[in-house]
C-alpha cells in the first residue's frame, strides 16, 4: 500500500533532556523520522524540551516547540495547529510513549481528532504489563522464566518465598532498568522490593527467577502493513544475563549461536511481534539462551517501538531503522521503499555484515562519588562507542581505543591490574573495566576455565582474548629492527595500535609507524554497504582495516581500498566521541552544523567519529563518514589518505581539542583558531599573564605540580581555594577546599589520577555571581552571541547551573565590563571562530574565571533561544569565507530563556547529590518565561544556594 494521502500534518514527540537510560539515540531516531516525513511532503510539528540537540534545530521540522513534555503543552500545540492529523510517539523513547499514553487516557487525541500512528497502544500495554505479556507468551508457546507480579509489599514477600533466591526484581513502565535489581540474599530483599515498587509509576514489580549465566541476545525487527517482517540485526551480549544491555559489551552479528538456534530465535521473534498487535514499525526483542548444548531459548521482553539498540543496529548495518519505520507509519510497505545505501535495491531485505561490530558503554562513575560501580540490571552508562573491524579482535581493540580513558587498547600499555585478588574481585562483581581485566587475568596466568566459571562469558570470546595475549607474548621477544612483516600485519589485523606494538618491543610509536610504512602495511578503507558488496553502494560510509597484499595474474601487487579520493577541496570535522558528563550531545549539534556550513562553502565534508547514537555519524550527514576512533593513529591515516585543506577541532569538545597539538606538530592545518591560541587559553599561567598585560581582573592564583608546592601557594592565597587540573572538561577533578588538610588530600588524589598535570589554585570568590559569554570572532571583529547569568552562585559548575538568557540581575556597569573583556580577550587570543568566557562578579567588579576559544556547551542553547544559526556563521568565519560583519544578526527572544540542568542521581541511590565545581548533570532542558515574576523562576532563585558543596 503506498503512502496514505490523508496524513498531511504529523506531530512528533521528542525524548526531552538526556538522562542515563535515554540518551541521544532517540534524538537520532527523531531526526531521522523528521527528515523521512519531510521527504514525503508532510508538514512536521515537533515538541521537545532539549535545546542541545540537532533535532530541535529550525532546519529539522516545520514547527518546533521547545516546551515541557506534558499534556498541557500538547493541548497548546493542538489548539495552535488544528490541521494535525496524527501523532508519531515511537521516536522519543519511554518519555514520548508515556506522554502519548497519558494524553490518550485523558482523551486529548480524541478531542482533537488526532490518530496515533506507528504504534499500537494495546501492544505497548501488553508488553509493559509484565503479567499480561507473560500470559500471552505462554499462550503462543514461547518460554519464559518463572515470574510473578507484585503490586504490594506483602505479595512480593510471598513470591520470593515460593521462588527462592537469587531473584530479579523489575519495575513496570520504566526505562534503562530503573528500579531493577538482583537479589542474591534474603536480607537484601525488603529494601530492593520497596525501591522497585516506588520507582514504578504504577507501583508494580515483576519478580523473576534469576537466569544467572545465561547468554543474552537482541533482535531488531521491522514490519509493514502487509505483515512483511525483516530482521535487521542480531546482537549478542558478550556479558551474560544479569547486566543491563545498555551496560553490556555487545557484538553484531551474533558470534556463538548455532545456526539451528538462530533460526529458531528468528521464528520466535517474528511470532512474538505478530502476536502482540497489528502495527507497522520497529520492534526490539530480547532473549536468553541456556549456556549448554540444549540452547534453550527464553523470551525476556519485547519493545514495539524504536529502542536504544535501534541506533546501534542502524549504524552497524547501514539500514536506517527509524527512517524506514517512519515511512511504514505513514502507510508505505517495505517493498515500495529503496535501500538507502545502495539506492538500487529494495528495503525489503535483511542486511548482511561482512565485518564485526563491537559496542562498549562509556561510564562516568568518577562524577558520582561513593556510587556503586558494579554493573547490574539498572543501566549506569552515560554513552557508548561502536567500532567496526574485519574480526571480533580488531573491532574490540578499536572500541577500547575509542573510549578515551587513557588506554591504547586491550593490554600492552602497562596500565593493567597486577594484583590477583583485585582481578578476581573485578571479574566476580562486573565492573566498568572488566573488558580490560579479562586480559589482565589471562596475562597473570589465570586459566580460561576459571575466568569462564566466574564471569560466565562464553568460552569463544575468552579464546579470542587468549589469542591476542599469545600474540603480544610473541611480539615482545623481538626488537623493532627484528620484527617481521608478517607479525606486524597480524598485530594490525587484530587491532593492536602502533603505541601498543611500541610498548611490546620497547620503542617509540613513530618508529612502529615508520617501519609499517617501509613494509607497505597500510590501512585500507572498506564500505558499509548492507549487502556484503553484492550490490554497489552509493553512500560513502567507511571503516578501516588491514589486508594481505593480493597479486593479480598480471603481476600487480596491491590491497583493495574502497575509499576513492576526489580532487575536491576537503574539510575534516573531528567528532566528540562517546557521550559523557561534561561533553554531550551539544557538541554533536555543533559538528553537524560545521559539516553543513562547510558543504555550503563548497567543500567536500569528511566526518570522523565513533559514537553510534548521534546524527553526526549518520551516513548522509557528511559527504564521507569514517566510523573510526577519534584516536591519533586512525585520524592521521585518514588525513594522509584524504589530504584535506584542514581540520576543524573546535566543534568536537575536548576530544577534538586534545588532538590539536599533534595536528600542529605534524603540519596539518587547524581551521580557525590556531593551536598556539588554544594552548595559551588552557595554560593558566600564560593566560593570566595575558590578562594582567591587558588590565583585566582575575582571581588571585598560582600553579603547583606537587602537594608541597600547593601547600606553599595556600599560604599566599588564603582559603577557600579552588583547585583544578589543566586540560580537562566538565570540571573534572575541580574542588573547593577550605583548609590545608583538604588541600593536601585532594592534590595527592588528583596527581595520582592525572599524573604530571599542572594544577591551578585560585582564590575562590565566595558569594560571587557567575556569568558567561559566547562570541564569534574573525580575528578583527567580535560579535557576542549571548551573555548568560547563572542563578546559582559562583562555585557550581556552569553545566550544573540554571542560567538565564539575557541576564536578570546585572547592572549596565557590569554588563559593559563583560562586553569589553569578552572583545578584548577574543582579539588577544587571535580567536577565529567561537569563544566562551566565564566570569565571577563581586562588588560590581568582573573577574575572569576562564576562556575557551572553541564551541561551548551553551552555544546550541543560545542558538535555539535567539533563533539564529550561530555555529553555521562561526564555521564560515573559521573557513575564512566570511567576516563577522558580513552577517545580519537578528536575535529574537521575548522575555527570558532558562537553561535547566537535569541529573540522573536516581541511578545512584547512595550518592552525595550536592553540587560543586565538578559537573554532574547528564542533560538539560530549556524553559521560556515572559518575566521574572514567573513562579518557576522564583522557585529556582529561592533554592539557588541549597546544593553548593565545598
Structure description:
The chain is globular. Strands 14-13-10-11-12-15-16 form a seven-stranded antiparallel sheet, sandwiched between helices. Helix 1 packs across helix 10, helix 14 packs across helix 16 and helix 18 packs across helix 19. The protein folds into six domains: 109 residues, 3-Layer(aba) Sandwich (Rossmann fold); 64 residues, ATP-grasp fold, A domain (Dna Ligase, domain 1), CATH 3.30.1490.20; 139 residues, ATP-grasp fold, B domain (D-amino Acid Aminotransferase, Chain A, domain 1); 141 residues, Orthogonal Bundle (Carbamoyl Phosphate Synthetase, Chain A, domain 4); 64 residues, 2-Layer Sandwich (Dna Ligase, domain 1), CATH 3.30.1490.20; 176 residues, ATP-grasp fold, B domain (D-amino Acid Aminotransferase, Chain A, domain 1, 2-Layer Sandwich). Helices cover 35% and strands 20% of the residues. The mean pLDDT is 91. It has 950 residues and is an alpha+beta fold. The protein contains 31 helices and 35 strands. Keywords: Amino-acid biosynthesis, Arginine biosynthesis, ATP-binding, Ligase, Magnesium, Manganese, Metal-binding, Nucleotide-binding, Pyrimidine biosynthesis, Repeat. Belongs to the CarB family. Pathway: Pyrimidine metabolism; UMP biosynthesis via de novo pathway; (S)-dihydroorotate from bicarbonate: step 1/3; Amino-acid biosynthesis; L-arginine biosynthesis; carbamoyl phosphate from bicarbonate: step 1/1. Composed of two chains; the small (or glutamine) chain promotes the hydrolysis of glutamine to ammonia, which is used by the large (or ammonia) chain to synthesize carbamoyl phosphate. Tetramer of heterodimers (alpha,beta)4. This is Carbamoyl-phosphate synthase large subunit.
Amino acid at each position: 500500500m503506498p503512502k496514505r494521502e490523508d496524513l498531511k500534518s504529523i506531530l512528533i514527540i521528542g525524548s526531552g533532556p538526556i538522562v542515563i537510560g535515554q540518551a541521544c539515540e532517540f534524538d537520532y531516531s527523531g531526526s531521522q523520522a523528521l527528515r523521512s516525513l519531510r521527504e514525503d511532503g508532510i508538514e512536521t510539528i515537533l515538541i521537545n524540551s532539549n535545546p542541545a540537540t540537532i533535532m530541535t534545530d529550525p532546519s529539522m521540522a516545520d514547527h518546533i516547540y521547545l516546551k515541557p513534555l506534558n499534556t498541557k503543552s500538547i493541548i497548546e500545540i493542538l489548539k495552535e495547529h488544528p490541521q494535525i492529523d496524527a501523532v508519531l510517539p515511537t521516536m522519543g523513547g519511554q518519555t514520548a510513549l508515556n506522554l502519548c499514553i497519558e494524553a490518550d487516557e485523558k482523551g486529548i487525541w480524541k478531542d482533537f481528532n488526532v490518530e496515533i500512528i506507528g504504534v499500537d497502544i494495546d501492544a505497548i500495554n501488553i508488553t509493559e504489563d509484565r503479567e499480561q505479556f507473560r500470559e500471552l507468551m505462554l499462550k503462543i508457546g514461547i518460554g519464559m522464566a518463572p515470574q510473578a507480579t507484585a503490586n504490594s509489599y506483602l505479595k512480593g514477600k510471598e513470591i520470593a518465598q515460593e521462588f527462592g533466591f537469587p531473584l530479579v526484581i523489575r519495575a513496570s513502565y520504566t526505562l534503562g532498568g530503573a528500579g531493577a535489581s538482583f537479589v542474591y540474599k534474603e536480607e537484601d530483599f525488603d529494601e530492593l522490593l520497596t525501591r522497585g515498587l516506588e520507582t514504578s509509576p504504577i507501583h508494580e514489580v515483576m519478580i523473576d527467577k534469576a537466569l544467572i549465566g545465561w547468554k543474552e541476545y537482541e533482535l531488531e525487527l521491522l514490519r509493514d502493513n502487509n505483515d512483511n517482517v525483516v530482521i535487521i540485526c542480531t546482537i549478542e551480549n558478550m556479558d551474560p544475563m544479569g547486566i543491563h544491555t545498555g551496560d553490556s559489551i555487545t557484538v553484531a552479528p551474533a558470534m556463538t549461536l548455532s545456526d539451528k538456534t538462530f533460526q529458531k530465535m528468528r521464528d520466535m521473534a517474528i511470532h512474538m511481534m505478530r502476536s502482540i498487535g497489528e502495527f507497522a514499525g520497529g520492534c526490539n526483542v530480547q532473549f536468553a539462551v541456556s549456556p549448554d548444548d540444549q540452547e534453550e531459548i527464553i523470551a525476556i521482553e519485547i519493545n514495539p517501538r524504536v529502542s536504544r539498540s535501534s541506533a546501534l543496529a542502524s549504524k552497524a548495518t547501514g539500514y536506517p531503522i527509524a527512517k524506514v519505520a517512519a515511512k511504514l507509519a505513514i502507510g508505505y510497505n517495505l517493498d515500495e521503499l529503496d535501500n538507502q545505501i545502495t539506492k538500487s535495491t529494495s528495503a525489503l531485505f535483511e542486511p548482511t555484515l561482512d565485518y564485526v561490530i563491537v559496542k562498549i558503554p562509556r561510564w562516568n562513575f568518577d562524577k558520582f562519588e561513593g556510587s556503586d560501580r558494579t554493573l547490574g540490571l539498572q543501566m549506569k552508562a552515560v554513552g557508548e562507542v561502536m567500532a567496526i573491524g574485519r574480526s571480533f579482535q580488531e573491532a574490540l581493540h578499536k572500541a577500547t581505543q575509542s573510549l578515551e580513558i587513557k588506554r591504547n587498547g586491550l593490554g600492552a600499555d602497562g596500565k593493567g591490574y597486577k594484583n590477583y585478588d583485585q582481578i578476581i574481585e573485578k571479574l566476580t562483581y562486573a565492573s566498568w573495566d572488566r573488558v580490560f581485566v579479562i586480559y589482565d587475568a589471562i596475562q597473570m596466568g589465570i586459566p580460561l576455565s576459571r575466568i569462564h566459571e566466574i564471569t560466565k562469558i562464553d568460552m569463544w570470546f575468552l579464546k579470542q582474548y587468549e589469542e591476542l595475549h599469545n600474540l603480544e607474548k610473541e611480539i615482545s621477544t623481538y626488537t623493532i629492527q627484528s620484527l617481521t612483516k608478517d607479525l606486524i600485519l597480524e598485530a594490525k589485523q587484530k587491532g593492536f595500535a602502533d603505541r601498543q606494538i611500541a610498548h611490546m618491543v620497547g620503542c617509540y610509536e613513530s618508529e612502529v609507524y615508520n617501519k609499517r610504512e617501509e613494509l607497505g602495511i597500510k590501512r585500507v578503507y572498506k564500505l558499509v554497504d548492507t549487502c556484503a558488496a553484492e550490490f554497489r553502494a552509493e553512500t560513502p560510509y567507511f571503516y578501516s582495516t588491514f589486508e594481505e597484499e593480493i597479486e593479480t595474474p598480471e603481476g600487480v601487487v596491491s590491497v583493495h581500498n574502497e575509499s576513492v579520493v576526489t580532487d575536491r577541496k576537503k574539510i575534516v570535522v573531528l567528532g566528540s566521541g562517546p557521550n559523557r558528563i561534561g561533553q554531550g550531545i551539544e557538541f554533536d549539534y555543533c559538528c553537524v552544523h560545521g559539516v553543513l556550513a562547510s558543504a555550503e562553502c563548497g567543500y567536500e565534508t569528511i566526518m570522523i567519529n565513533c559514537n553510534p547514537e548521534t546524527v553526526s555519524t549518520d551516513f548522509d550527514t557528511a559527504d564521507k563518514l569514517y566510523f573510526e576512533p577519534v584516536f591519533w593513529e586512525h585520524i592521521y591515516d585518514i588525513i594522509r589518505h584524504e589530504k584535506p585543506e584542514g581540520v576543524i577541532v573546535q566543534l568536537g569538545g575536548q576530544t577534538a581539542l586534545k588532538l590539536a597539538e599533534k595536528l600542529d606538530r605534524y603540519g596539518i592545518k587547524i581551521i580557525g583558531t590556531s593551536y598556539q591560541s588554544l594552548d595559551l587559553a588552557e595554560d593558566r599561567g600564560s593566560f593570566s599573564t595575558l590578562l594582567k598585560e591587558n588590565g583585566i581582573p582575575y582571581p588571585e592564583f598560582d600553579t603547583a605540580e606537587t602537594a608541597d608546592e600547593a601547600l606553599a601557594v595556600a599560604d599566599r592565597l588564603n582559603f577557600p581555594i579552588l583547585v583544578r587540573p589543566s586540560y580537562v572538561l566538565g570540571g573534572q577533578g575541580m574542588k573547593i577546599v577550605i583548609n590545608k588538610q583538604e588541600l593536601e588530600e585532594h592534590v595527592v588524589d588528583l596527581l595520582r589520577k592525572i599524573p604530571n598535570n599542572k594544577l591551578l589554585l585560585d582564590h575562590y570568590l565566595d558569594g560571587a555571581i557567575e556569568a558567561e559569554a559566547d562570541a564569534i570572532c574573525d580575528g578583527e571583529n567580535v560579535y557576542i552571541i549571548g551573555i548568560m547569568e547563572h542563578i546559582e552562585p559562583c562555585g557550581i559548575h556552569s553545566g550544573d547551573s540554571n542560567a538565564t538568557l539575557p541576564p536578570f540581575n546585572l547592572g549596565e556597569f557590569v554588563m559593559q565590563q563583560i562586553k569589553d573583556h569578552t572583545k578584548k580577550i577574543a582579539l588577544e587570543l587571535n580567536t577565529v571562530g567561537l569563544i566562551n568566557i566565564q566570569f565571577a562578579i563581586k562588588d560590581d567588579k568582573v573577574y575572569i574565571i576562564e576562556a575557551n576559544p572553541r564551541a561551548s556547551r551553551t552555544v546550541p542553547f543560545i542558538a535555539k533561544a535567539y533563533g539564529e544559526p550561530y555555529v553555521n556563521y562561526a564555521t564560515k568565519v573559521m573557513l575564512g569565507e566570511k567576516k563577522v560583519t558580513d552577517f545580519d544578526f537578528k536575535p529574537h527572544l521575548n522575555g527570558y530563556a532558562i537553561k535547566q540542568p537535569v541529573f540522573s542521581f536516581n541511578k545512584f541511590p547512595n550518592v552525595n547529590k550536592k553540587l560543586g565545581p565538578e559537573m554532574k548533570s547528564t542533560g538539560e532542558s530549556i524553559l521560556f518565561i515572559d518575566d521574572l515574576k514567573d513562579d518557576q523562576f522564583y522557585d529556582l532563585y529561592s533554592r539557588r544556594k541549597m546544593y553548593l558543596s565545598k
